[in-house]
Amino acid sequence: MRLSLFTACITASSATLLCGVQGARRLLRRPSVAMCSDGERLPLPPFLTPLWKEDAELVVSMTATRAALADRERVIAVVYDIGGPINQLLSLSIQKPLPLSAHVSIRLYGKEIGYDGEVEVRPVEVMEEMMSGSPRVFLDLGPPKLSEAQLDALVQRLTTEWTIATYNIFERNCNHFGAELAALVASTPPPPALFKPVCELTENLLDALPPWRQQLGRAFMQSFTVFAIVAWSWATKGKKDRLENSVERSVT
């Protein structure tokens, strides 16, 4: 009975979000390129201009060079598109174009730090392998104001503040965590225009829907996303652990 009720809720909520929608125009553009200091050309993701719009030039100017990416003592924000073809379905559901399903993490001292219901710290090499198929942009936030030991202490504190119990798909997700962490570790505070559009993707996700559908959609999406995050974390933990062990063996 509980399973049937759960299934019915999912079906009804999904149908409510999807009904009456005629279609969504395609936002993605052909990738542009950024010139590295060493002369190499780095492809930029197709979501860059649709997401940052008039601030796209600022973002391009902050794109990390290969030298910066290789520097352990450089704060790098990574904005991934983890949605793929799901973005088009979500665009239909919310009745407006969605340029990407964003995930933000921060790299520093050879670690990539992110939040998906819990704070996770992995070697950069592990996340490069795990996220290899996701379009992304690397943003150079400059040198850190924390030592590696201070960063570890900060992450320990954030682990108690950013948990599955405090997760909110709309207002307290991985993008908000990444923006907060960037401000805490970078010597120069990131410009507001850098993370604001990324966080607003979820904050304003349902604003094109009628109020009654927004209310229903928020309740359903929050519950379902928490369930999905727990399942995803469980499903990927083993692979991440194996990759991390492999990285550690190669170093030693």
Protein model, in words:
- It comes from Prymnesium parvum (Toxic golden alga).
- One of its GO terms (molecular function) is deubiquitinase activity.
- Residues 73-222 form the PPPDE domain.
- This is PPPDE domain-containing protein.
- One of its GO terms (biological process) is protein deubiquitination.
- By secondary structure, the chain is α+β, with helices and mostly antiparallel strands.
- It is built from ten helices and seven strands.
- The protein has helices at residues 2-18, 48-52, 56-61, 66-70, 86-94, 124-130, 148-161, 174-185, 192-203, 211-251; strands at 33-35, 41-43, 76-81, 102-108, 111-115, 119-123, 136-140.
- It has a five-stranded antiparallel beta sheet with strand order 6-5-4-3-7. The chain has a two-stranded antiparallel sheet with strand order 1-2.
- Strand 5 and strand 6 (119-123) form a beta hairpin.
- Helix 1 (2-18) packs across helix 10 (211-251) and helix 6 (124-130) packs across helix 10 (211-251).
- The longest helix is centred in the C-terminal third of the chain and has 41 residues, at 211-251.
- The relative contact order is 0.14.
- The model is unreliable at 1-33 and 35-39 (pLDDT under 50).
